[in-house]
Amino acid sequence: MLILASSSSSRAKLLQEENIEFKQITFDYDENLNKNILASLYVQNVVLQKEKQFLAAFEKDFLNETVLFADSIVCIGDKILTKAKDKNEAYEMLALQDGKSASILSAFLLVNTQKRVFSLSKTTLYFREFDKNALKDYVENNLFQGKAGCIMHEGFHGQFIKKQIGNSSTALGLDTQTLKAYL
C-alpha cells in the first residue's frame, strides 16, 4: 500500500480518483527554504526536505513501505509563490495572475527499498481578467488558504482559465499519470 506523506486533501482526492490504494499520514513540514533559486530547484528541495523531516520522525514505522512525498508551487516569471499567509498576501498573489499566466510546478518523490523515483511536472494556466466580485468572495471567505500561489484550479481559477498547457492533476498538486507508471 502507498503511504501518502502529506496533509493535502487535493492529493488524497487525486489518488482516490485514480483508484490508488493509500494511507495518508499527515505531518507538519517546515517548508521555509531559500527562494532565491530557480523555481524548479526550489520545489524539488522542498520535497527532499519533506522526506528528510518525515523519515526523522517515522522511518522505523514505514521502513518497508512505498512512501510518496510531494509539493507544488506557483511561479510567475522568476517569482516563486507558495501559500499565502494572510488575505493581503493573497490579494497580492492574485493581482500577479489577473489577466496573465501562472505556472504550477509539482514535484514528487516515490521511495521504497527497491526504487527512488523523482518527478517534476509543469502546468501553465493562462487567465482572463478576474471578476472583482468573485475575487473578493474567494479571498474574504478564505478559500485561498492552503493553496500554492492561491490557485484553486478546481474552483475560483477554473472559471477564468482561457488556455492550459499541461495536466490538470499537476495543477491540482500531483502528476498522477507519471506516478501510476511507477506504482
TrEMBL record:
This is Nucleoside triphosphate pyrophosphatase. It is found in: Cytoplasm. GO terms for molecular function: nucleoside triphosphate diphosphatase activity. GO terms for biological process: nucleotide metabolic process. The keyword Ribosomal protein does not apply. Belongs to the Maf family. Its main location: cytoplasm. Nucleoside triphosphate pyrophosphatase. May have a dual role in cell division arrest and in preventing the incorporation of modified nucleotides into cellular nucleic acids. The keyword RNA-binding does not apply. Keywords: Cytoplasm, Hydrolase, Nucleotide metabolism. Its cofactor is a divalent metal cation. Its EC number is 3.6.1.9. GO terms for cellular component: cytoplasm. The active site is at D71. HAMAP family: Maf. InterPro entries: ITPase-like_fam, Maf-like. It catalyses: a 2'-deoxyribonucleoside 5'-triphosphate + H2O = a 2'-deoxyribonucleoside 5'-phosphate + diphosphate + H(+); a ribonucleoside 5'-triphosphate + H2O = a ribonucleoside 5'-phosphate + diphosphate + H(+).
